[in-house]
Amino acid sequence: MRLATPQEVRASIAPHVLGGGGCRMVGANNLHPHQSEAVRRLGTIMRGSGGALLADEVGLGKTFVALALAADFGRPTIVAPASLRRMWRDASARAAVDTRFISMERLGHGGTIPPADFIIVDEAHHFRNAHTCRYGQLAEACVRSVVLLLTATPVQNSLRDLRTLLRLILGKQADVLDETALGKLIVRRSASAIASTAALPVIAEPEWVTVAGDADCLDQILQLPPPVPPSDSGQAGALAVF
Question: Do 106 and 136 contact (CB within 8 A), yes or no?
Fold first, then answer.
């Protein structure tokens, strides 16, 4: 008999709560069955084609799917909007994955991506224009790396958007392949489809709370005694009445 760690306890409980077979751990996180399935499918695609596009709907956990793939493809370099730097830092810490972050804004100002075995491009739809500086810098780096593109909206205007994204993986071949061939590089699931096979958390609808009027509230606030000033400053007059 031995004392189990919290991570081991979670790993034992998760399959019974989430359904499915074995549960894959990524650091302190248990992947949902649909996430584990995505890791398996994407790994197969990436080993065969050098890259893939994960286009699951928002909220299905693309971040931790991407970090789970680091076990097979090496230390990830994350390319994403600067506003996502903290999110990726926190997620990487929880997943116990060493990552490097480079903002797309930096690439737009001529920054480069150091040699990397594995590049994860989050919010990849920002790279749908091949004539920008940031696209050129990213494309140059992708030539020598395995690439995972993440976006819930791979097509915003036309199929040309998708071809431009997949050109980061396939090069000019993406311009001539038909939609069926391009689709072989894409994993995309909707929340409604997954809900029928996985126990995703359900968020309750907002509840309106009606507060009764209180005409005496303002008078009661005004009758409060003067606040005690801090020892190292003057009077704390936020509620003082003059």
Answer: no
